[in-house]
Give the backbone structure.
Amino acid sequence: MDSPAAATDDAALRSRLDELEARLAQEAQKLRAVQGIAAALGTTLNLNTLLTLIMDNVTALLDADRSTLYLVSDDGAELWSKIMTGNDLKEIRLRIGEGIAGWVAQSGETVNIPEAYADTRFNQDVDRRTGYRTRSILCMPMRNNLGRTVGVVQVLNKQGERPFTEADESLLALLAAQAAISIENSKLYLSVISKNVELLETQEKLEHKMKDLDLLFEIEKEINAAADLDELLGRLLQRAMDLLETDAGSILLYDEHKGDLYFRTALGRHGETIKHIRLREGEGIAGWVARRREAAIVNAPAKDARWNRAVAERVGYVPRNILCVPLVAAAEDEPLGSFELLSKRGLRRFDADDLKLLTLMAGQASRAIRLARAKEERLKEGRLAAIGQMLSGVLHDIKTPMTIISGYAQLMALVEDPAQRRDYADQVQRQFEVMGAMTREVLAFARGESNLLIRKVYLHKWLADVEAHLRQEFAGQGVELIVEPRYTGVAFFDETKLYRVVHNLARNAAEAMPHGGTFRLTVAAQGDRLVLTFADTGRGIPPELEGHLFEAFVTAGKKGGTGLGLAMVRKIVEEHQGEVAYTTAQDRGTTFVVSLPLERPAAEVAGADAGTAATATA
């Protein structure tokens, strides 16, 4: 039979075993909880979910009232917490070094405080703001695999008003290490996701830019393919209607003279009808957009005060919705008009993307309008300049026959012989005919017309007239005239026009010899060609005119020059199916060689055989 002392020892031993078994079961429970936390942490990378999961388990395992997990901000200046267990969810921000959590983040040391209000580091303002009473605190840093503090975990108020133990510290250190790794993984995941989102956004923007560039390229092709402004605007309007899928559209421009808007281009079932309508400045949505230079999306026109119902009723078409953007002269920011699309198909509404696309196309349309108007202005100025130059050329060219007329008139005053006077009168009459032919010839040249009167010419007589006229022209200029008629038979050409060739080349030669010189005209037959050679001893042709000598309005800057003479020489020669060439040397003179068919051109023979007039009269 056991003694009382032995019974007491057995009871104590059993009690001790029960206590150990209870502690072992508790530790096993904690271990399972830690393993469950580790497993749970691997199931999510969402930071908010992760922080909630960590703090719920920390609070339960440490038998605490609540816990808070602070993360170090990206700039390292603050601690912030979004997740708090307890009754409330509030965000708290602390500066590094502020309060217990801030001190732990700054020092990297663990803090276990039995009585918070007895510690000077404790910031009582948080309790005052939240209405919470803090007693005991266990706070330690969370470090990543590089040893850098990424956050702070803080546990408050051990249940039963007990202080936190060393065992609590060990358990929290284990949980903090796991939490730090999970938080770093979550941040890395979120960073990758953010980068992917940025890449996708960048890719989307790049795709939009590429679409815009493709559209601009297509529009540029449309502009280059158009023959005039109306065709160009029509192409742009049709493309806009196709891209935005609308039933109708129009481009309105300001009439600078009348001060209103007119429909320059309109497409759709009522396009032709609306072209006859004009809008007062600011009238209707299109007028409002043009005057204000602001775009408008009107998805309910009937409810918009700017909409002009009278125009819709006159045309017999009521649009479901309207998208309109201004056309603007970029440099002056002056309004050109407006570009509008009507009735998006499928009962859809116009949106910001439609506005962006139409604005892009309106910019190209505005540029095309500006270029077309500038080109038109240049053409007007060019035509006026050309008319002025041609008139100058006519007046200048008439000087020669007027000089000859003056010479014959003076001779008539000196002779008494009636026959001689009649001969001089005939020469005067011929010069008047020459002046008339000159005028018609310049006008025909300006219009690009070709009127030849090909007929049989007896060269000996023609050359005699040419020599007489040239001597009159060269009189008093110190120019020696030499005519060498190596062929004096018959040729076929427009006598008056070829005289014009001789006249222009002789006049140029005289101007190239301001101090006198020699002008030699040689007429010869080479095979089936009539060759006229004009040689002078002047200054030669300036190098800057090489390659451009026979172009219209090209001159070496000589006083009174128009640049039409040699251009007309080439035109007349080519009309005769001939060729003209030259050689020149500085201060040694220039030689022009004109080669014409000796016989009547084949086309003229065919025309004569058919019994029709060979050419129009000059």
